[in-house]
Amino acid sequence: MQFHYRVIIMWILAVVMIPTVAFGQSDLCALLVQNALAVTDEACVDTGRNQACYGNSLLQATLQADAANVVFNTPGDKVDLTDVQTLRLGSFNADNEEWGVALMRVQANLPETLPGQNVTFVLFGDVEIEDATAPDAPPMQAFFFRSGIGDAPCESAPNSGILIQTPEGVGEINLRVNEVDITLGSTTFLQAQPGDEMIINGLEGNVMASSFDEMENAIPGTRVRVPLDENLMASGPPSPPEPFDEDDVQALPLGNLEREITPPPPFEGDASTAGSATTVSSDIPLTGTWLITYGGDCAAFLSTLSEADRTFHISVSGDANSFTMVAPTGESITLTPNADGTYSVPLPEDSFMNFNSISADLVTGEFGASAQGFSIVCPMTLERLSD
């Protein structure tokens, strides 16, 4: 019996100690990155239009010569972008527990009549950004930036760069980045190295890049590359779109955006022709009130749902390449097309909802779920009831 207890005690010690021993650099990296993003999300929630927020150290701001005294050195500090010349973020430093994160809300070319609508910038890692906007234009509508590339400190951390997302329902906005004209009504991830290239990754909707009188469109799952000179200025036209590198877009802090999206997989097929083919999709539902009906086994299984519980509001993005479904509870999800033109609703594991055929007034698809040995797959139809 004494031996039996000794074995149990040794087993308990092993269980307790093994994680401690195994906790190494990768685990520390994951914790630091998660904490940095959580701190930023909480500290920067009230960032206003044309402001930058200090998310996580290390972050340094160089102010314009005529800027007033500004305190910008701890999480939650904010500065007007009109006072900012450059922002420099620090790369991952485990010894100092640093990984720079900043959040900006930029007006760009959005009208003054939409003060609550802003373009969201999330900067992280080894990034430097410099305002290059004309004096009579909103700040940071034009800028130069550089970032690390392929520098993720661990698998659960992203590579350095900038996430940019436009607000829902305002159409497209225009930016000038490293002398490249970018038009987007979507979400994109940018990286740039002087003397090398700028990489424009399409995560949602369309991202159109134009330089040297040529334009390319990075649809979800693709990237467009633009050569840069040593001064971070475009030195040639953008490349045709190609499937992005999944490692380049790993672990992006999408939760720090205004609306969280599901990152697409790398595009399958000929991405060089897909960009122009899907610039404007005709297979998109019209904005309005829609009713969802379940068929097959789900008809009886979900018979307790009232019509009100099955009614959704759908709104279409300005570029007509994505649509947002708003449930009666107020929860919403924005859907962008898969490579084959279908749409998928992100759901927990062991369940799915796909829309396979879409027209202006009718959407058909499938819903499936499984749990504890029970599974069900049902057809479903969405019909438009009114505007």
Layout of helices and strands:
Blueprint (H helix, E strand, L loop, with lengths): L1 H21 L2 H19 L7 E6 L2 E5 L14 E3 L3 E6 L11 E6 L12 E6 L2 E5 L10 E6 L13 E5 L7 E5 L2 E5 L2 E6 L4 E8 L2 E5 L2 E5 L3 E6 L14 E2 L27 H7 L10 E7 L2 H5 L9 E6 L6 E4 L5 E4 L7 E3 L5 E8 L3 E10 L2 E13 L1
Amount of beta strand: 35-45%
N- to C-terminal separation?
76 Å
Low-confidence stretches: 1-23, 277-282
Q: How many strands?
A: 25
Summed over residues and divided by their number, the pLDDT gives a mean of 84
Widest sheet, order of strands: 3-1-5-6-9-12-13-16-17
Number of domains: 2
CATH architecture of the largest domain: Sandwich
Portion of residues in helices?
Answer: 10-25%
- In DSSP terms (H or I, runs of 4 or more residues), the helix count works out at 4
CATH uppermost class of the largest domain: Mainly Beta
Radius of gyration: 24 Å
